[in-house]
Structure formats: structure tokens, C-alpha cells
Design brief:
Blueprint (H helix, E strand, L loop, with lengths): L2 H9 L1 H12 L6 E6 L5 H13 L14 H8 L5 E4 L8 H11 L9 E6 L6 H12 L5 E7 L7 H4 L3 E5 L4 H10 L7 H7 L3 H8 L2 H19 L1 H15 L3 H22 L12 H10 L2 H19 L4 H14 L2
Parallel strand pairs: 1-4, 1-5, 2-3, 3-4
GO molecular function: 3'-5' exonuclease activity; DNA binding; DNA-directed DNA polymerase activity
Keywords: DNA replication, DNA-directed DNA polymerase, Nucleotidyltransferase, Transferase
EC number: 2.7.7.7
Length: 332
């Protein structure tokens, strides 16, 4: 098995099996919809499928050889019969789909086959989606489409009904942590980053971001202040928190990390230390876990989740944080 195919199987065994079976039986659909959260390998899988579709020396009837001119040109992104459509600004417009249709009305440059992928297909305008619908209703022979989305609920039902849906599941925590560590993330940081994103590149960007490094430290300090007194925690908000966590997205990130700390307390109380998201502060977490009940931890988790929901409702961030501190201390 090729390295690419092995990686696909390890990340997405169900999706890999579905596509492998279709290739081996020569029963590929004319249109697929790859759906799932960011970082689950949908775009890479579409490239792998394109290589398998065009490859002239497939291995075991399904895997691309990686050596023929089709495989190499697709890998380098310059195959004349493979077309990738991405949003132009915030959306995919009707003109982009019409240009694609014009391309497909021409003969193939290097084979009788043609392949196109539409990334963020949920961002098509209504006119673009309707144009694509006509394209899907009358598929050209030897033509394959892959639509890629993180928001399947935003897709037109008429388009969904004309595609074979392949779901990409979130990567398992253990697999993602291993990949992060092999990419250079320290072992004690990998669990946290694996919880914040499924995307390796995003995780690496977060790790190298000084704002994020400081944010992590300040969240830990807020938890320490909460263990002492209501006054200490409120003072910490005034002196440090508000200066660092300024917009809604930053506040949400801080709340998410605080939530992970309380989840770690629960993991310790349930004797599941292997699941810790903040292993570097395990000593402090163990002391905190001994000083409060499991019910209090669960109530604290609900308090933070409620604060996150209120944040989305555009409530005043400062008042919201102070109320959260008061509620956390009241329940302790």
C-alpha cells in the first residue's frame, strides 16, 4: 500500500474503504460530496481520488502508482484536465461554475477524462448552485466531480441527492496527538492543540503564536486565582485578562482552555490521567481535584459552557466574565 493511501486509511478508514471498493469494482460515482470538519483530510483525499481516476498503472486496481505523468502532474497541481474551484472572496459565483462548464465542453487535453473539485461547496451562491445542478443532472461520460464542505447542512438538497456522500470523521485524539508530536509539537502541548484544531498547520501556527502562548499561561493563572478567592480572581481579570483577551474570538479561546482545565479535574477524579489536556500542570490539578467535589466540577463546566453560549449572544464581555467568576466561586 502506498504511503498516501496508508495515511488515508489510518485517518479515515470508513471513507477509504468506500472509495477503495468503488475503484476495485470500477463503480465510481460521477459525483461525490466529501463532508466533515476542517482538518480531516478531505482535500488531500480528493487529490488521491483524482490520481486514482487518471492513473494508467494503478496498483491492485485502486491505488495510484505515483509515477506516471498523470499522477505527477496532479500532485504538482498542473494537470490540464483537473480543475479546482474555490470561493472568489466570500462565495463561489455563477460565473465560476459557467467557466467550469465551458472547460468541460472541450475535449480533454491529455486523456478522455476530466475531474473537478469544488472546495467550500456550501459557499456557492444560489445561482451558482443552480448552474452546478444542471451540470450534475447531465454528467459527461468519463467526468468526475468532488464537492467538499464543512457545512453539509448549507448544501441544497437537490445537489445532495445527486452526489454520493462520503463522511470524514474527526481524527481520533491519539492519532492526532501522535501526528502533532511527529510534526515538532512538544509532548505536553500536543493534547491541548489536538483539542483546539484538527488541522496540523493550524496547530503549528498556534504553537508558534506568542499571543497563544501567553493566553495559555493566563488561563492557568486565572484558575489558580479561582482556587484562592473571589476577590483574587476578579482582580486578575482587571489586571491581566481584559488586556490580553480583547475580542470575542480571543475570549472564546480563553474560555475554551479554562473549560479544558475543569475537564482535566474531572479526569483526575475519575482516575483517567491519560486523558489530561494540561499534563504540564498535573501537580496543581491533582491538588485542586482533591479540594472540590465531582458535583462542583460538573457545575463549573456547565457555568463555563453557559458563559460561552452567552458570549455568542453578544453580551458585554467584561460583565460576562465577572458573572462567571462569581458563579464559579458560588458553586465551590
Amino acid at each position: 500500500m502506498s504511503a498516501q493511501w496508508e495515511e488515508f486509511k489510518a485517518k479515515q478508514p470508513t471513507a477509504e474503504k468506500m472509495i477503495r471498493n468503488a475503484l476495485q469494482r470500477d463503480r465510481l460515482a460521477h459525483a461525490y460530496l466529501f463532508e466533515g470538519t476542517r482538518g480531516t483530510g478531505k482535500v488531500q483525499a480528493s487529490k488521491l481520488l483524482a490520481q486514482s481516476f487518471f492513473c494508467i498503472n494503478r496498483i491492485e486496481d485502486c491505488e495510484p502508482c505515483g509515477e506516471c505523468h498523470h499522477c505527477k502532474r496532479i500532485e504538482s497541481g498542473n494537470h490540464p484536465d483537473v480543475h479546482i474551484v474555490q470561493p472568489d472572496g466570500q462565495s463561489i459565483k455563477k460565473g465560476q461554475i459557467q467557466e467550469l462548464q465551458m472547460e468541460f465542453s472541450k475535449s480533454g487535453m491529455e486523456s478522455t477524462k476530466k475531474f473537478y473539485a469544488i472546495v467550500h461547496a456550501d459557499r456557492m451562491t444560489t445561482n451558482a448552485a443552480n448552474s452546478l445542478l444542471k451540470f450534475l443532472e447531465e454528467p459527461h461520460s468519463q467526468t468526475m466531480a468532488v464537492l467538499i464542505t464543512e457545512q453539509i447542512h448549507n448544501m441544497l438538497s437537490t445537489i445532495l441527492s445527486r452526489c454520493q456522500v462520503v463522511s470524514f470523521r474527526p481524527l481520533s485524539a491519539n492519532l492526532l496527538i501522535k501526528q502533532l508530536i511527529s510534526s515538532g509539537i512538544p509532548q505536553d502541548m500536543a493534547p491541548l492543540l489536538s483539542q483546539l484544531t484538527q488541522n496540523i498547520d493550524e496547530a503549528l501556527a498556534l504553537f508558534s503564536d506568542e499571543w497563544f502562548a501567553q493566553a495559555r499561561k493566563k488561563v492557568v493563572k486565572l484558575h489558580e486565582a479561582l482556587q484562592k478567592s473571589e476577590e483574587e480572581a476578579l482582580l486578575w481579570l482587571q489586571q491581566e485578562w481584559y488586556k490580553h483577551f480583547q475580542d470575542r474570538e480571543q475570549v472564546n479561546m480563553g474560555l475554551q482552555m479554562l473549560l479544558f482545565i475543569y475537564r482535566d479535574l474531572l479526569s483526575i477524579q475519575l482516575n483517567r490521567k491519560e486523558k489530561l489536556i494540561f499534563p504540564s500542570i498535573v501537580g496543581e490539578l491533582e491538588r485542586s481535584a482533591l479540594s472540590i467535589s465531582q458535583t462542583t466540577v460538573l457545575n463549573s463546566i456547565e457555568t463555563i459552557l453557559h458563559t460561552k453560549r452567552m458570549l455568542d449572544a453578544h453580551t458585554n464581555n467584561q460583565l460576562l466574565m465577572e458573572q462567571m467568576v462569581l458563579n464559579l466561586k458560588e458553586g465551590s
